Q: What sequence folds into this?
């Protein structure tokens, strides 16, 4: 216990001693996460909406999505190297692919989980298919979709450490080279800041979610 | 006006939900579809607003074959209370009620006025307007379901067990309120229930369903006095017992006090137990029987003005009904 505390303290000291480099790595990390996440959301949500409408698309997408999430992130990162080489782009693409799935799966599950009676009522009152989607299905699915986005973002912060392997930069620089050099304060400095980043992004998303004023099924967590 | 002409509905999986049914709901009247679970009541209702299409036959809405009408327009002109209420949980009560007026493009002030009016009509105070459906009781939710269906002044109203899933007292209140509302709005109503009592109470005409078929379509009085066949007789018969219980006073069935003087110990103590262990001769047999079942004794003293005037036992009730010639 005392060891953990002293190592954490030395980690924080390391961070303060190397502040300029810290800001640099944090910025790289954040850009990777935010850029890949935004693109992932803007593709996964519409794709999920389309898939939920087409019975034939839905189950293949769901099963591919669920299986793909079991592929270790390192494998995807490693796969990017021979295709796209080193640097920001391959890292970005790998993170994007990895972030896509939870959002996609939750969008489909969320839209599917809306109570049939509610849909029947909407239909019976003369809503068109588009009105049902925008006014009823989507808002009611929003808490589940948001759960997917939050899960995806938190995982993304963790996966982005691996970008260092293919020259993507980020906090992985401290953690991975720290492990190689057995420099524990450096590892801790990188790990703690990543954890804080993940928690902050999650809180931010929670705030956005409540701003959107959803009051659907209380924050149901489905298919994380 | 709604007319069913030889309408048959077979679902895609081969289930024949209804088989060649005929009936007419005259303008401004209420027709109640009543029958056991799974006999095709909801299906019939969905054929009116084209949530389902008939396999054979024609459904006329205000004289036109509804297949010729635009689905969306047709539905917006028909109020629909679904069996599961189906309120939109992410919208406020006000927004729920305003659904159809908004869809058909009323201006905001007209919508606001209408919502206020409906809340008042359904006996809900204006503060409910901004609450969410989940914050409300079952009875309140049902009221809002009805208000939402009435919002755009439809001339046809479909109500699928609108007061189901409520305790008997709340249901009775809502039925009474709705009967008053019904007098004020000149709407053609198709009402579904599985309770013959509700049907007798709410309907101008009643269609009694057996699996997939209408076995009798008549006024409530006609159905009670001239049940067409055994199915109808059984359907109203069982419930008649209950109705008879609620209108027969204890006085008619009780034994005189002398008969029980020897069996004192079996009698529920009237004095120290207070009112609970006795019953007034003017109470209904329904109340008497309920009380008998809730105490540990087999005999209930009937007390009038502090004096024991008779005794009531389960056997009395039973033999009364046997001699009354129950089917
Ligand atoms: N979409 C459907 N596909 C196949 N069969 C269906 C469908 N909807 C209803 N059915 C079947 O049609 C029959 C009539 O169902 P319906 O819902 O009309 O009965 P109901 O009288 O409303 O019953 P309840 O009192 O339980 O609501 C039932 O056997 C039911 O299982
Ligand atoms: Mg039904």
A:
């Amino acid at each position: 216990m005392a060891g953990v505390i002293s190592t954490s303290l030395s980690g924080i000291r390391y961070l303060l001693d190397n502040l300029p480099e810290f800001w640099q790595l944090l910025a790289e990390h954040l850009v990777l996460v935010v850029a890949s996440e935004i693109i992932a959301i803007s593709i996964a949500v519409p794709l999920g909406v389309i898939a939920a409408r087409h019975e034939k698309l839905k189950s293949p997408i769901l099963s591919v999505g669920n299986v793909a999430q079991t592929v270790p992130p390192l494998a995807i990162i490693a796969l990017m190297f021979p295709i796209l080489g080193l640097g920001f782009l391959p890292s970005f693409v790998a993170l994007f692919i990895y972030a896509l799935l939870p959002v996609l799966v939750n969008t489909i599950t969320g839209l599917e989980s809306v109570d049939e009676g509610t849909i029947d009522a909407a239909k019976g009152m003369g809503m068109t298919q588009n009105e049902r989607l925008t006014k009823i299905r989507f808002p009611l699915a929003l808490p589940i979709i948001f759960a997917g986005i939050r899960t995806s973002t938190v995982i993304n912060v963790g996966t982005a450490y691996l970008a260092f392997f293919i020259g993507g930069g980020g906090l992985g620089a401290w953690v991975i080279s720290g492990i190689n050099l057995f420099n524990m304060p450096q590892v801790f400095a990188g790990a703690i800041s990543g954890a804080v980043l993940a928690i902050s992004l999650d809180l931010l998303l929670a705030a956005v979610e409540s701003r959107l004023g959803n009051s659907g099924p209380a924050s149901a967590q489905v298919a994380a | 006006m709604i007319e069913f002409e030889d309408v048959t509905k077979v679902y895609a999986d081969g289930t024949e939900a209804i088989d060649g049914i005929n009936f007419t709901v005259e303008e401004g009247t209420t027709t109640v579809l009543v029958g056991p679970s799974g006999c095709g009541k909801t299906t019939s209702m969905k054929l009116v607003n084209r949530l389902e299409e008939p396999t054979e036959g024609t459904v006329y809405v205000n004289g036109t074959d509804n297949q010729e009408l635009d689905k969306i327009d047709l539905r917006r002109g028909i109020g629909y209370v679904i069996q599961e209420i189906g309120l939109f949980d992410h919208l406020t009560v006000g927004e729920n009620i305003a659904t159809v007026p908004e869809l058909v493009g009323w201006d905001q002030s007209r919508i606001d006025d209408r919502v206020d009016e409906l809340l008042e009509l359904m006996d809900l105070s204006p503060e409910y307007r901004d609450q969410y459906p989940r914050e409300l009781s079952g009875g309140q939710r049902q009221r809002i379901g009805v208000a939402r269906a009435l919002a755009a002044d439809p001339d046809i109203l479909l109500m699928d067990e609108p007061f189901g899933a409520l305790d008997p007292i709340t249901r009775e209140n809502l039925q009474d309120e709705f009967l008053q509302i019904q007098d004020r709005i000149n709407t053609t109503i198709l009402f579904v229930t599985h309770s013959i009592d509700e049907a007798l109470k709410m309907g101008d005409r009643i269609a009694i369903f057996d699996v997939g078929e209408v076995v009798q379509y008549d006024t409530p009085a006609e159905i009670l006095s001239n049940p067409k066949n055994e199915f109808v007789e059984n359907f109203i018969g069982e419930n008649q017992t209950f109705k008879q219980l609620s209108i027969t006073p204890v006085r008619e069935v009780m034994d005189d006090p002398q008969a029980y003087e020897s069996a004192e110990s079996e009698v529920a103590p009237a004095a120290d137990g207070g009112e609970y262990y006795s019953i007034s001769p003017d109470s209904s047999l329904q109340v008497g029987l309920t009380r008998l079942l809730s105490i540990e004794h087999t005999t209930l003293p009937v007390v009038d003005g502090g004096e024991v005037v008779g005794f009531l036992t389960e056997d009395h009730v039973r033999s009364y009904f046997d001699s009354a010639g129950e089917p």
About this structure: The radius of gyration of chain B is 24 Å. Chain B touches chain A through 28 residues (CB under 8 Å). The longest helix of chain B spans residues 230-247. Chain B has twelve helices and twelve strands.
